[in-house]
Amino acid sequence: MVITLDRPFNGRCPELLSDLRALVATWDETQPVERLISQVSQLISNRDRDSRTTDAMFRRTRMTAIRHQKGSIEKIGKWYYVRFRRSVPGRKKPKKERERICPIEGPGSLSETRRRLEAQRIVDASGVNDAYFCQKTVRNVRAAETFRERGDAWLKEVAERKRKPVAPSTLQKWESTLDNWLYPTLGTLPLSQVNNATVKPLVSKMAKVLKPGTIQDRIGVIKSVVASAVNTEGEQLYPRKWNHDFMDVPVVVDRDINAPCFNSEIVSGLARWKDCRARTLFILCAASGLRIGEVLGLDLAKNVSADFRTLRIEQKAFRGEIQERLKTESSYREIDLDPRVAAILKHFAAGRTTGLLFRTRTGKPLRPEEILRTHLHPALRMLGYKNPVTGDHKAGTHAFRRFRETHLGKVEGLPRGIRLFWMGHAEESMTDHYNKIKEDRGARKEWAERCGVGFDLPSRGQIVPISRRAREDKLIA
């Protein structure tokens, strides 16, 4: 039997709970349950006979419907604020309060996910969530936790943990997965009931609209949420043996993965694109193998050497903001460029020594989606490019990285340590760990020149293709 007091604390609640605990501790389970209920009712009636506080504990009111406050984020002036409500003794309606989170822009501003987490931290620190539930069972069994409740707690835990911290982009991806796919189906289920049988219908639903790789990512989130529920000794409360065959999880087929790689002809055409900024960005991506966020996060003062031959990767751009956390630990590295590419970058910088290399008119980072929509996809259409998987002309900027990795693989004699270092890939063996050739900058620069770029670099005045049908060309301004 379970006795649950799902009501806010008040001034007399602690004393009442002590009496209830004593009553339950001395109760003989062989006696009729009705007798215990009668004794509990009598105890409550005797203690609060002249008060309405006890009735409020067992009567659902407007305030008791609020189980856990997350707060409401809003803009006021130049700041983000979080609004929440506080229960005040003797006051019928809750008191509305607000606390400042961060500036809307400039130093101290936070991303959307970070703002939400900081807002939750502020609300929790205010104490409004401390005393909303008082649950006690006769056998001291913890109340059931739903998948939604554990999912929210899991997101908060992975965002604040010090071991293997998670990037904001990954947090946003997981949050979107929970809100759009997992919560609508599994959100109200007790965590103990989330298993192969209950997840199987969701897999069937996702298989109609999602690709196999995406489905496996969604299932990975389910596994992590369930596994995150642990006891005081750190052991899983609901250990699972997940069966992909039973759930009929689609298998990822390599040939169906949309991972295009440009060839030298396409990259040579992109290197002659009419827009100077986009053209320079295409050349750098193909000649360095940098991820698009790493390229857009390059700061002339901090990340680019005076001769533009070496790039120091220490930050990235994500959704118009600079973040100092990269994808992996191996991503913190230096890239050595071909002298011809360095000359192109130096000419593009036009004497600037501070600020981002690629930036908007206001000095902020460019957004990858703008580059795709405005420049890369139109250029690929004009060049007659066809994606071998999707059949259309579209491809992402990661195709430049695959092109660079493919080109380096063809260079005879290139030390494996330099190749892994340039690409930001993790060392796979103890031999890779002991190999310190990546620390020899002179050797790296020599090999950067010997490797080349694998495509034709443009010169000033070279023509740019306008259409794959029309043979008329246009001079670069």
Tell me the major beta sheet: 3 strands, antiparallel
What is the CATH first-level class name of the largest domain? Mainly Alpha
- Please give the CATH architecture of the largest domain: Orthogonal Bundle
- Give the distance, in angstroms, between the N- and C-terminal Cα atoms: 82 Å
**Count of individual domains:** 4
Number of helices: 18
What's the total number of strands? 11
Radius of gyration: 30 Å
Q: What can you tell me about this protein's structure?
A:
The structure is a single chain. The protein is built from 18 helices and 11 strands. The chain is mainly alpha-helical and 477 residues long. The chain folds into 4 domains: 2-64, no CATH class; 71-126, no CATH class; 147-255, DNA polymerase, domain 1 (Orthogonal Bundle), CATH 1.10.150; 264-475, Orthogonal Bundle (hpI Integrase, Chain A). The strands form 5 sheets. A 3-stranded antiparallel sheet has the order 2-3-4. It has a two-stranded antiparallel sheet with strand order 1-5. Strands 6-9 form a two-stranded antiparallel sheet. A hairpin with an 8-residue loop joins strand 3 (79-86) and strand 4 (95-103). 23% of the residues are buried. The model is unreliable at 1-12, 53-66, 132-143 and 465-477 (pLDDT under 50).
Quick take:
This protein has 477 residues and is mainly α. The protein has helices at 13-25, 33-47, 53-58, 112-126, 147-160, 168-186, 196-207, 212-227, 244-247, 264-270, 276-288, 292-296, 339-349, 368-383, 398-410, 416-423, 430-434, 441-451, and strands at 2-5, 72-76, 79-86, 95-103, 134-137, 310-313, 316-318, 321-323, 333-336, 463-465, 473-475.
